Request: fold
Amino acid sequence: MRQTLRPLIAANWKMHGDLSWTSKPSDFAAIYPASERGHLDVLICPPATLLASMNDGVLLGGQDCHAAVSGAHTGDVSAEMLKDAGATYVIIGHSERRARGDTNADVNAKAIAATRAGLIPIICVGETENERDAGQAETVVSDQIRASVPDIEAYVIAYEPVWAIGTGKTATPKDVDDMHNAIRAQVGPTVQLLYGGSVKPANATELLALKNVDGALIGGAGLDMESLAAIARAAPKP
Ligand code: PEP
Reply:
């Protein structure tokens, strides 16, 4: 039977967008009105510079946060600052942050910070292509979850195979199904599990139909509101 958790469709804009993009939530709402999507949540995580100016129409989130509330951390943003600017979620441990040095311990501390600020952390995990080829994908992901997820009540896991991010390569539905079933067994029935890695309107229906896929974390296709809406429309009603 399919999952019954509320779907979450999340767009990570990464380092894209200027002030003219702050009207995109209302563009999205014009394409896919809120009255038609009461069964799911749509989240946009723009650059921090845009957060406070974003229009209404979708939920908003940050792309990373520092573990401290404030302090001498040049260039960083705290979870409290994201919350103050309108965020309700924050992505933690994206592979692009892990590649720049974030360890599982850092991700764990940031997830605690997110919870402290009243944000829901979206904790990203995923194996590299070499790890998958060596048959270690499930072990790597399960170790990442064990070390990255603190003892908190509310969080989301995003499974993002590193080799599928921004490459146009998508994990097969069987690979995603196997991994999400394994993650479900590890984290229990109430945690939303997102798949990320070259999700597009063309593959969203198949991926979002999988039993333990409760939504998607979307990079490239989330920059365009027509394609984000098409992906959101593909999410089945619980
Ligand atoms: C991502 O950045 O988390 C991502 C999944 O990107 P893309 O959809 O472009 O592969």
In short: The longest strand covers residues 120-125. The domain at 21-233 is CATH 3.20.20.70 (TIM Barrel). The chain has a mean pLDDT of 96.
